[in-house]
Amino acid sequence: MALIVYWYDFICFAIVAAAIVVSLWFLLRRERGCLGIDDTAHVSLLPLYRSKSLGSAQLWTSCWTRLHPGWLLFTRSTSFLSMAALLAWDILKWDASIFVYYTEWTFLLVIIYFAMGIAASVYGCLIHSKELALETGEDVVVEKVGDEFRQRLEVYGCFMQIIFQTSAGAVVLTDIVFWLVIVPFLSNTRFGLNTLMICMHTANAGFLLLETVLNSLPFPWFRMGYFVLWSCLYVIFQWIIHACGFTWWPYPFLELDKPWAPIWYLSMTIVHIPCYGAYAAIVKAKNSCFPYLFPNTFVNP
């Protein structure tokens, strides 16, 4: 057994457990209604879209009114293929053991988001094309969608938004730790900087920011709880593999055999707030500034 537990490690366990409990409690209180949104309160971002599932339209419509849904499909497909190629390169170079790193977990999560986004965009393009074909005068004839399908679409959309918001916070945390901690202070044979690492820690933020500029998804603060749970899941994973015989820590600040470990764990827990807040500020800046800069083409989600 490679994991030796010291008395101060129980403080680390308590910090992670408290983070999980608080996140779950907060999410259970605030997440209600996710699947029962009153879609009639939204303004359609597609000029021709008149269906009742306007909330679902946020999955494939852009905040830029004149931008065809196909452009969002194109950017999501490009992002997905580029990131999948980088991840495949990473696995071929280091094998599947590379998933001991939080970077790969987050990178895969962003890829999953873009895959879900592609599916939503394809569906949105089909709806858009059908509406154009059935347009008669000022009204549009839209085929009614069954309640069961609408519910599935709402569940799909809820998961897609959760993954987007979790990915955003995780990408900020990943890149801050990499560029501000690992590269300057922890660079060694295992953390050696190379082209692949630079590409991965640039592409994850770059593609997600491009998606943010184009999409119309909301970014509520309370969903930071999913971001915290995601990180806690990774930490628990590290504890389990070390208990099973894994001998080294991918990140020194996760080590449990140091007396100052509780300070590191508490600091990493707190840093989730500014990481998520930084991305929330980007979304807020977009929704606040763009309507004034582009009043005729930008619609605040």
TrEMBL record:
Could you list the residue ranges that cross the membrane?
A: 6-28, 71-92, 104-126, 162-185, 191-214, 226-251, 263-282
Q: From which domain of life does this come?
A: Eukaryota
**Keywords, ordered alphabetically:** Membrane, Transmembrane, Transmembrane helix
Keyword Aminoacyl-tRNA synthetase (UniProt): no
The stretch of residues making up the signal peptide is none
Q: Which GO terms describe its cellular component?
A: membrane
Which named protein is this? Transmembrane protein
**Organism whose genome encodes this protein:** Arabidopsis suecica
